[in-house]
Design goal:
Layout: E1 2-5, H1 7-14, H2 18-25, H3 29-36, H4 45-59, E2 69-72
Antiparallel strand pairs: 1-2
Helix pairs in contact: 2-3
Length: 78
């Protein structure tokens, strides 16, 4: 099993910058940059919830976890 972080794609599609999300969600800038670059191994659920809620509030779009994370089963890797 692996989890792909799709935050960078979601931000790009929403025309929201990493800096804007960092400021509005009140999270560390390194966290957002590491998430977008796939460097994060752990993520606090409260932080994840905060980011999704902030995206929703900023854009008016109904974002969910699947807009930020993608589950890839082991047998789907190839």
């Amino acid at each position: 099993m692996s989890i792909k972080i799709r935050l960078g794609d979601t931000l790009e599609a929403a025309s929201v910058t990493k800096n804007t999300l960092t400021r509005e969600a009140k999270v560390r800038p390194n966290l957002i940059y590491d998430l977008c670059e796939g460097k994060t191994k752990r993520l606090d659920l409260d932080t994840l919830n905060n980011m999704v809620n902030t995206l929703w509030a900023m854009t008016g779009n109904d974002y969910t976890l699947t807009d930020v994370l993608e589950y890839i089963p082991d047998d789907a890797k190839g």
